[in-house]
């Protein structure tokens, strides 16, 4: 019985990046292309979405909630997908997003993930939406903390 519980609860858990070497040598400038909102002087969030990732079924409501809460405050949103065939589906699932970006080179990054840019286009956060094994959607996740800091002070300490 314990094995069955373990199998269903933990089978989809994995590292944020399957390539630890790539993560260790990560260049934040590589994500600059994902920040179309920055020239407009607004914070910008890119939601990395892969429909084949099991965790997305739990995260969608939380992602939509973030978009609905922060878009009226001037934050812009984009969705990055791994293949052009996912563009239409992403637009339907995330109607608050300004655009959908095809980024085939993000296949090794865990999904759902997010990149938060400040108003100058500087990356202040890149990683999962929550810390923990269960795709938690409670308040105070890294994305919300970074956005709150950006909106309240105009800058954020990269995390």
TrEMBL record:
UniProt name for this protein: DUF6436 domain-containing protein
Pfam families xref list: DUF6436
Provenance organism: Vreelandella azerica
Domain DUF6436 stretches: 29-152
